[in-house]
Amino acid sequence: MKPKTLLLLVLASLTLTACGGVDPNSPLGKRQTIFKQMLNTSEDLGGMLRGRIAFDEEKFVVGAAQLDKLSRQPWQHFPQVKEDESSAKDEVWQRQERFQQLARELERATAALVVATTATPLQRADLAAPMQRVEDGCEACHEEFRVY
Question: Where does the UniProt annotation place the signal sequence (predicted)?
Fold first, then answer.
């Protein structure tokens, strides 16, 4: 193989490796996956309540349960030391007590949303306040601990 061709292959390999993104099995990759699932689920629920998506009782109940389950998962994937690629502020690691407090508040908000879905028939107006508390919980944590 010609040296020029070999050099191009090596450079191409290095370029592709650098563009690989976050390892999905790393703590960062795992929590990013969970947070994306939470966002998608929350957007669908909010969309149903705001009329962007047709309201479907069954889908809302399933989505609320899924969001509640997801809300309990990402916290275990925050290691003791910050990763270089993280979009979390250093305060996540420096102010763990507050970070955990906000995590528990979100968990309580998603649990309350699930409880609100037990009233039948479901009324969008009755779900608006519990859903807003979930959204406010996400926003509060992002404002304090996420780098935009």
Answer: 1-20
